Amino acid sequence: xxxxxxxxxxxxxxxxxxxxxxxxxxxxxxxxxxxxxxxxxxxxxxxxxxxxxxxxxxxxxxxxxxxxxxxxxxxxxxxxxxxxxxxxxxxxxxxxxxxxxxxxxxxxxxxxxxxxxxxxxxxxxxxxxxxxxxxxxxxxxxxxxxxxxxxxxxxxxxxxxxxxxxxxxxxxxxxxxxxxxxxxxxxxxxxxxxxxxxxxxxxxxxxxxxxxxxxxxxxxxxxxxxxxxxxxxxxxxxxxxxxxxxxxxxxxxxxxxxxxxxxxxxxxxxxxxxxxxxxxxxxxxxxxxxxxxxxxxxxxxxxxxxxxxxxxxxxxxxxxxxxxxxxxxxxxxxxxxxxxxxxxxxxxxxxxxxxxxxxxxxxxxxxxxxxxxxxxxxxxxxxxxxxxxxxxxxxxxxxxxxxxxxxxxxx
Length: 411
Prior knowledge:
Layout: E1 2-5, H1 7-27, H2 29-33, H3 38-57, E2 60-63, H4 65-81, H5 85-88, H6 92-119, H7 124-133, H8 138-153, H9 158-187, H10 196-204, H11 227-251, H12 260-278, H13 285-305, H14 309-313, H15 317-341, H16 346-360, H17 363-377, H18 381-410
Parallel strand pairs: 1-2
Helix pairs in contact: 1-3, 1-13, 3-13, 4-11, 4-12, 4-13, 6-7, 6-15, 6-18, 7-8, 7-9, 7-15, 7-18, 8-9, 9-15, 9-16, 9-17, 11-12, 13-17, 15-16, 16-17, 16-18, 17-18
Transmembrane segments: 6-25, 40-62, 68-86, 93-112, 163-185, 230-250, 256-275, 287-310, 316-336, 348-371, 383-407
InterPro entries: GltS
Subcellular location: Cell inner membrane
């Protein structure tokens, strides 16, 4: 039997999940020590409870997806609205190097998936589904390409397999990033963990220079905003989402068709820099940061609430093997390639955690991973400048190009 939760009940459930996650991380030393993000901790408990109720009682809950999608779009719009071109220059050569790591890993991810699929005696395109289509692409890309693979390439159940693989990646991406970064930081003595008292003191005392923070950095820290600033910022978010909706419909079926969240991010970039550079309007970054962080947490909580773990049990044996291998390869690549290429320093360790997030799950997972690390060890301006833009925008463009080339080859 299924119960349907409307938007209000879904929002209440997401807040409960976040509060539960915060309680678990604060009370359980293991979660705090290995920097598991609060939405992931609470969401996994909710997903397991949902699995038990479904398995023993036959009940399941369908949560409203409308709010989840809206919070996701607001999060990506906040990335765009935070993209001051002058600040982005601070990324420098690191931005280019990190983008190179991402592009190379997308190729590696598909090579691993398709090679293992062939060795296991299944269609290599199954390996593509368990590659960058779902792990780097996430649920949105899985849905779009799953339909194409079913109708045009004859892969039966591609959509179901894609959603299950993306679900697996969302969970694992939020689990491996924190411990990997902690291992790198401790092994190379890159930073010293803060005590709970130090963390609480930092969060309750506003930064004397809050505008120097990178977007989404220190989400728990107090940020002073006013009602006027909040209303103006909400208006900018509404403009970004309206632009995204229009462009999604206008570009459908054309060569420049892109997912809605990419248009939301692009709209934010355009709006921010026109207002700031052309019209000389002061942008209040602290309000953007508050709304962006809140949307990030609520989106992740709702995404994990919607997980149906019993679907993972239905995965074919070969797919389980491929996904397990992908997890191992992601961790090794982040540790031995991303970390080393980015300089083998503290920023590089935080970037490695972020790469695990969107290499296996999604950009929100990447940001949550980095927040968990910087909350414990201190800020990483470079990581928070580089990862959101790369993970949300460039990754999807590169991923779409690689998938298109592979499909043309196999066609």
